[in-house]
Structures are given as C-alpha cells and as structure tokens.
Amino acid sequence: MAIELDLSQDNGERDAVAPGKAQAIFTKFNEYAHAKSGSHTAEFEIVAHDDKEQNGKTHVEFFSSKAGAAFRLKTLAIAVGLATAEECEKAKEEGRAVSMEFNDAIGRQLFITLSEEEYQGRKSVKIGPRAMYHLTDEKAKNHPRNVGMLKRSGVPLDKIPGPGSASSATSASPAAKSQTPPPPAPPADDLFKLS
Prior knowledge:
Elements: E1 20-34, E2 39-49, E3 58-63, H1 70-79, H2 85-93, E4 109-119, E5 122-133, H3 147-151, H4 173-176
Antiparallel strand pairs: 1-2, 1-4, 2-3, 4-5
C-alpha cells in the first residue's frame, strides 16, 4: 500500500525538543548504539515542559562510553534510581567498577534540563552534563510537573519537592533506591494535566 507524504512543510530537520526544564520518562537505552564512537543513546518522552508545545516529544541523548564521561551515565543512573550517590562514591573510593543495567529503568521518570549547545557550527539541544535529577531531588523543585504521571511513578507525592510541597528532601540519594519501576504508562496524551 502506498503512502502519500505532504512534504510542503518539510524543512529537512526533525522536530527537536526546545531548551527548558522538563519532566520526562526514560523510554529507551541503546548500548553502544554508534559502533564508530562507542557511544550509547537514551530516549526520553517529555511529559511536562516549560513550553507546553514540547509535551509528547521525544528527546534523544548521546552518552560517551569513555571513562572521562562516566559521570553523565552515573548522573542518569542516580536520576532513574538505579544507584545512589553514596553507592557510587563508595565504589569510587574502593577503586571498583559499578555494573548498571539501564534497561531495568525503562519507564521510570526523572527531571531534566535541556540547553542549546553549538559544536563545530552546528546547534543542538542536549541535557546539561549534570542536569538529570531524581524525582526527590531538591534541585528540580522548580521543574514543571505532570501530576498525573507523578502519581504513577511509585514515589509518594509528598517526597517530591516543588512549589507548595511538604517535602523536606534535600537530595536524590535517600529515596533513589526506593523508587520502584512503575507499571507501563498509558499514552502521554491522556495524562497532560500540568500543575
């Protein structure tokens, strides 16, 4: 069956997520997705963004497998509850590697901050080097929220800092381990009730 494509509005660019603060669902992780560079890719579905027009879009982020960039994967692991900052610090002090299965965290939520970067004359939107936060991280208290999705996260709402929150959490670490994988989320379109 043939499909007709109206290309009159196609400018050759994908509809990337705009810079800003967001709540996202970690939806996919591809280990060594790029054979040449050895980098991994992760995909995030935006469920709340400073600009509501960004909701429902997918952001793809590249993670280097080089030792010097391991902190970004560590930041992601803490943000999705695969590890705590204390566990990572202890492993570092003991001089041992940490094994993490990122696909075990598919479906978990986190807060991210996207910013525009320019490299070799080309602009792109990326998650800041340390701009991935666990739902209980005080640093993300001003990120936009999708309460419908937060209720499905497995993290009690009173533990998620934010405007008007009763939470006294100060870091991602104490609750990071307690986040349980949520049941499969329904399509995000049904849940865009922002607070």
